[in-house]
Amino acid sequence: MSNTLVAVVVAVLLGQFAPHAVSAWRRHDLYARWLMWLDVHLRAQPRWGGAAGLVLAMLPWLAIVGLLQWWLHAPLLGVLGFVFGIVVLVWAWGPRDLDADVRAVLDAEDSVEQRVAISQLWPEPGAAPSDPGLLVEAVFRSALARWFSVVFWFLVLGPFGAVLYRLCAISATGVTAQSLPPGHRAAAQRLLLMMEWPVAQLMTLSMALMSHFDAVYAAWRAADGARLQLQTGFLGAAARASVRAELADEARDYLDDGIPQPPLREMPELRDAMSLVWRILLLWLALMALFVIAGWVS
Question: Taking the domains of the chain in order of start, what are their residue ranges?
Answer without folding.
Answer: 2-297
